[in-house]
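Researcher: I need the complex structure. Ligand is calcium ion. Inputs:
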Amino acid sequence: MNILIVDDDIVDREHIKRTLHKTSTNWLFTETESVDEGLIAFAKNDFDVILLDYRMPKRDGIELLLELRNSSLEKSVAIVMLSNSEQPELALECIKAGAQDFLLKSEVNSSRLERAILQSQARFDLEQKLYISYQKAKTLAEHDSLTGLANRYSFEEALRLSVSQKPRDKSILALAVFDLDNFKFINDSHGHDVGDELLKQVSNRIYHCLRENELFARLGGDEFAIILNNLHSIDNATRITKRILNCLEDVFIIAEIEIKMSASIGIAVYPDNSIIANELLKYADIAMYRAKKLGRNQICFFEEQMQAQFLKRYQIEANLVGAAERNEFVLHYQPIFETATTEVIGFEALIRWNFQGELHFPDNFIGIAESSHIIIDIGRWVIEEAISKIAHWNINHGKTLSVSINLSVTQLSDKSLVSFIESTIEKYQLEPKLVELELTETALLENSEHAIGVIESLSNLGCHIALDDFGTGFSSVSHLQNFPINTVKIDKSLMLASNEAKTLALIEGLSAMLHSLGLNIVAEGIEDKDSFALCQQLNIQRMQGYFFSKPVDVNTVEKTFL
Ligand code: C2E
Ligand code: CA
Ligand code: CA
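Model: Output:
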């Protein structure tokens, strides 16, 4: 029998060994002097029993006991505690902490110690078997045996817990309930084995498109549910559930049968729809039935307003794809004026979208295009259109007008943005310095190596870099110093409020600072004579705003400004 002795006292260790050698059992001893050495020895060997001294100088034996019992019982071993102290509560404490027996060192004799060891081992075996069967029963009670996902019981528990522990921040919790479209038909026509296998494959696919902290459960039959925690907005719930629908798109092949599968998803939101777990589940169910009624493979929110918002967003996103090829975008141009001469020196290109017979403004669709990365294609269209137009005007009218193009942060992640801009400038023979790329501070805040590299490469091409919407966000001096910025655009909200003393002081301060850094300033949102006068007074070099002109279409530019 393989024994680990953990005892700091060499005399006691010798005594134990001598005592046990008197019995007929074959003993193999490993000795350690402390808890830490004991743990190391335990990790390296397979012992049958540990004889553990209660009192030791650095760490008491009970710490080793607690450490072993806190890890899985399956990997543990029987422990007999030995002590010199006769306090009865000590023995109790050790048994409660998981020791199988407790002996006083003064009582140790060969038959008693041998019996303690053998009985402890038997006790430990029983405990271990009980533990394993408890774990099995627990898994069976909490998990669905077919898919291995959480079952309805544990899902409802988890939902109640998530709702009650939801931090009081602005984040939301969404509950998505869904079931498979026409699953009954598959079951009826191909048999239950195929149906079962399909459920397994479906849950496996979905499981892998979720984040780890999202609880995914099978509520029964072909009905599933997911708790989406810590969402920043409803749109996040839309995104994740759409990912679920997408991941079902490829056919499933089961027993050589090709099966198309889709799902109908209903979503209820905490706290908007309810703060009670059961109600959320009911509302998500109602939304799911609506999704089915609407024609399956759909996502429905319980609340009409959320549903309307979702549909609008969904519609915009779907229609943005390919809109450039269908020539639905146009650029309007807003002239930029030199303050000293009031002459037009260039234009800012601003996108518009002809959609469903209406001209849509960027605020309605740029955000959506950014979050779905469609902005990368749209942005390329804008770049080529704007550069070709300004080059055309300059050649035909003998001018050196510049063009300002807005770039989203997302566009900076496009690996070939720089080469695309470079080749476009070459293609239309425009001087690079006549192209000004407008970025907001959030783009610089990303501070990713890649974004910084892109901005520097664009500057090295000879393009100018403008910092847009300055004065609203961070307005950080370090951004102005660390990036190759040529121009700063003071945000229109400041100009529009320049009649307020505080804002006026802010504009004065900002422009003084920008001048001292040697930067070009453009004031946006000049809507009246007073703002114009302010620009003259503060030596703000350039102006842009309704007072001079709104953004206008190409024909109007050609008629009015060229
Ligand atoms: P922005 O870059 O700050 O563009 C200026 C916005 O202010 C334009 O709105 C313009 O019409 C408006 N504006 C100009 N002068 C005045 C004024 O005197 N008073 C007032 N109240 N507003 C004035 P727009 O065209 O709706 O563009 C909104 C935003 O959409 C832009 O803000 C820009 O961030 C973004 N955007 C526009 N075109 C593009 C594009 O091609 N690509 C990207 N990524 N973003 C774009
Ligand atoms: Ca801009
Ligand atoms: Ca701006």
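Model: Summary of the prediction. The chain has three domains: 2-140, 152-305, 329-560.
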